[in-house]
Amino acid sequence: MRAILPAGRPLLSRSAVEQMLRRAKVTATVAILGIRGYYRDTMGKPGTNDRGIYDDAIFVLSPSAFVAFNANVDPSTFRPGIAVLQPGVWQYRLGIHGLSKPAAKRYKALVQADPVTVWRDDLGDDTGMFGINIHRGSNRTTSSLGCQTLPPPQWPAFINLVESELKRAAQKIVPYVLTE
pLDDT above 90 covers what percent of the chain? Predict the structure, then answer.
């Protein structure tokens, strides 16, 4: 069975993340940076951004926090019509993931606050409110139909950090910058 989670967390300096957010013109007190293909050459097929593994990175930045998390920013598989969030600056807010599921399977996550642009496999670009959430994946799969996911052991720390930092900053919307 192939490893879907790297041995360690992503390593990038606070100043490097701040610089990437500045280039994206993000000035919010609390912000999130996602890097697609962070482990592109050390996980999966070298030189390829694989699907179905946590080979990407997410960083949470605020005046009082700077934390790196392993992540997946791609769908788990290739399938015509499945969504791949495009690089850009996207707005998210605290909400509930799994609204179409029974109440016991729903949980707090980051949900779209505004439309996003996705590439749909074999179909092209599409912009709208598609439920491209930032949520918990699973231990055996990244559990993504286009969402941004974090491995279960890292999920509680991520969502609790984002929630507490948004509250501290009196901020309702968090910009999520996705880059490659």
Answer: 88
Integer Cα distance of 97 and 79 in angstroms = 22
Share of the chain residues as helix, strand and coil, in percent rounded to the nearest 5: 15, 35, 50
Cα 93 to Cα 156: distance, rounded to the nearest angstrom: 16
Which of 34, 33, 35, 52 lies closest to 43 in space, CA to CA? 52
Contacts of 170 (CB under 8 A, 6+ apart): none
User: What are the φ and ψ backbone dihedral angles of 123, each rounded to 5 degrees?
Assistant: -120, -30
Q: Under a CB-based contact definition with an 8 Å cutoff, are residues 92 and 163 in contact? A: no
CB–CB of 176/134 below 8 Å?
Answer: yes
User: What are the structural domain ranges in the chain?
Assistant: 14-179
pTM of the model: 0.96
CA dihedral 28, 32, 37, 43 (to 10 degrees): 150
**Arithmetic mean of pLDDT over the chain:** 95
Beta bridge partners of 83: 120
Top CATH class, 14-179: mainly beta
The residue written with tokens 């609204």 in the block is 99
Query: Contact at 8 Å (CB) between 28 and 175?
Result: yes
Helix (H, G, I), strand (E, B) or coil at 49: coil
